[in-house]
Amino acid sequence: MWYLHDGAPPHFARQVRDFLNVEYPNRWIGRNGPIHWPARSPDLTPCDFYLWGHMKQLVYSEPVNSIEELTARIRVAAETIREDPTVFGRVRASLERRARDCIDNNGLQFQHLP
Predict the structure, then answer these.
(1) Most buried among 37, 60, 90, 105, using CB within 10 Å?
(2) What GO molecular-function term can you cite, just one (predicted)?
(3) Reported pTM
(4) Which residues does residue 29 pair with via DSSP β-bridges, in sequence order?
């Protein structure tokens, strides 16, 4: 298993990085980690361009009436995504398409893609 770490200031503390080095040796992605965090581009970062949007669609398909209901829906959405055998293929194909578009645009910002 790999750990994707965003490098926000509280997450960048030495104690946090030491913990990640022990729990995920050479298998965590983040600021000053063994694998650097990808460019802060929602067009290239899978969690930004796919995971959160897809999870929000699943969680908020209908109005949420309580914090308990929200918590339950988040758990169900995470399990739904985890159990979908096609999800990683779709993420990979989308990432490849976005990377090609980024290269075609000389690495400059481009509009959100469908």
Answers:
(1) 37
(2) nucleic acid binding
(3) 0.52
(4) 4, 35
